[in-house]
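Morning F.,

Quick status update on the modeling queue. The single chain you submitted on Monday has been processed. Sequence for confirmation:
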Amino acid sequence: MQRFTVKFLSPALLVWFAFVGSANAKEKDLRVYEGQFCWRTSPEHMVGAEYPGVVLDPDIAKNFRKEVLDYPESGAEIILFSLQKPGEKFFAPDGKSTSKDKAALLAKQVEAIRYFSGTPLITLFDPDPSCRLESEEAYVEAAKWVIEALREELGFMVCVSDRCDDPGWGRGSPGLYDIGLVEEIAGAIEEASPGRIVVAGGDSPDVLEALEWECPNVGALIRNDSKFEFGQGVLSFGKKPIIEVVNYKNATEEDIHKAWARVREDAKYAWVLSTDLDKPDPEMLEFLRKATNSFQIERSEAVPPDPDDTASLMEGEKAEGFVSLFNEKNLNGWVANSDEANFGVHDDYISVDKKSGGWLRSYYPYDDFVFRCQYQIKEGQNSGLHIRAPLNGRNSRVGFEFQILGQPIDAKPEKSGNGSIYDVKAPDEMRMKPYGEWNDVEIRCEGPHLRIVWNGAVVHDIDYGDYERMEHRKQSGYIGLQDHDGSVKFRKIRIKPLGKDPHHS
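Structure tokens below.
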């Protein structure tokens, strides 16, 4: 299924998507529009997390796609990382002769983040003297080099520096901030890649105000705060959107809930969690996961499924260990990740009616299980079952998706067609029933092994490692019913946990 936008969640950075080198980029994709982060002209609500350390280390690059999948699993879609840190100069002194090997590594890292529809926020320059370039022209050339190195990538955002008032930055010294150089760099990026969001920031109100009023090519401000200010305080005066970066150890779950609420009501504000470590921090991601999950549950007023409910079970399934995920009365046991109530309960089924823009996820995540349901879809419609899905990001590439399309029964098998593991593998045979009839699906996941039975026939029986595009997919996550521009019905939804059973824990 094609990418759908879940406007509800988006953690760890800010996403800014632009077409490199396109003169019309300002009218497309993610941009600043009327002072807000927008997808085209629709407000985008985003949060993110920092990927610390030296991202361009070849040893990290080998497993980078696997590592970054921990971020959407925790609710973060935007990933902030820096090209330099004290003592490690990324660019050549003249900004022009940086190696092709570094360009290739950078492109690989950005592609890995973009693969799950995440957005990299790349901080170019560290003001530490050990990272200084030889001239102002060298800074401009280095920024242009990054744009050229990533010319094939559509979605990334550039931060010149988040410490523009640091004494080591540019020609600066205490009390003398070289805002002119920041604007020159931002202007070079705008010329090379029109419409791309350029970010810059600092600690003092003076430098932030200068970036606001004296740097028209700086599209958004960024500031490291000791605790959440939720877009208020020193950053509240400007017209440009802002990104607040806060160390997760200074935040509480209540803070995250407030920050999420603030993001949802005002697309001018976004936030990112940071860490003190110089490598991926599992404690930060687990903190974000728990806080994001609890916020989603709180916002949608979701309640857990009743482990004793049997409404969706077939004869003998209770004894087999199956649990009903739909009580045929309401959406208890499900969490709505949508801006609207896109899903309704009618008689014994859940319906979606062309509202598009979200998904319904299970209250609990699962690792190993047997999942069963029935679906019915109209001609020409589009939906899917998301399996082992994350809290945010592209479900069909973090976990996977069983594609459901309203195609005729003589449709040919395709890897993005009806019954496929979306964008990975076509079904071994086409087993859809005529329009108006209910289809049966059974999906069995045990570690990296996946088996799907479609209307009585095994159409997929694979290991993740059999397909490069599946190799690093998550082996735990949520069950999702997708809303994607189509009319679809789901019923008889049940699951048999094969590992940890969250219903009885």
